Amino acid sequence: MAERADAAEAMAHVPRRIGRLALIVAIVVTALVVGISAFSVGRLSTLGDQKPLSTSADAGFARDMQVHHNQGVQLGVLIRDRSIDEDVRLLAYDIVTTQGQQSGQMFGWLSVWGLSQASPEPSMTWMTRPGRTADSHAGMHEPGQRMPGLATDAEVASLTAASGIEADRIFLTLMIRHHQGAIEMADAVLDRTSTSTVRTFATAVVASQQSEIDLMTDMLAARS
Hints:
The chain is an all-alpha fold and 224 residues long. The chain has 8 helices and no strands. The protein has one domain: Up-down Bundle (Ferritin).
């Protein structure tokens, strides 16, 4: 906890003249380097797994969840500039660093699999295909639609224009829904993949983001 608090304090003193865009770029670039290095050296720790196809659920999840996580980074950086609540700022720091690093991991998967970062089909197409079980996700989405839980441009603009406790409430509301969407996507890939690295990752996403949803629900109630 002391290390997290020190890191959050350091984050609070980042000069604002750096700008949100530069900070987001730095986080994403660092995450990509970490992801490629870690998974290239380890060969994904799945040498026994067959490499996924470009239209597989594994590849679709890796591409779409990068987009999803990158918006989580964006929202975290926005609230960092607007909140004076240290608990909200610490939560935002955790989200920015964790989701940035995980985005880099998924970039690394695609690189090691020899697959393009660009999808050959519309986003979420993989979620429309039947899974192993009669899950509730198949048929709920149309390819190319907004991914589950993503904030709209208007909602991002609303957070951008807010400050103080109003910004905290908007951020927590958006991020709760954002995490719920990520869990939906993780559950969907768990029903469609046999790749051990993807299964381990998606299982961790479900557990960690549900824990943060519970935390943020309590935080939002305390600030209402």
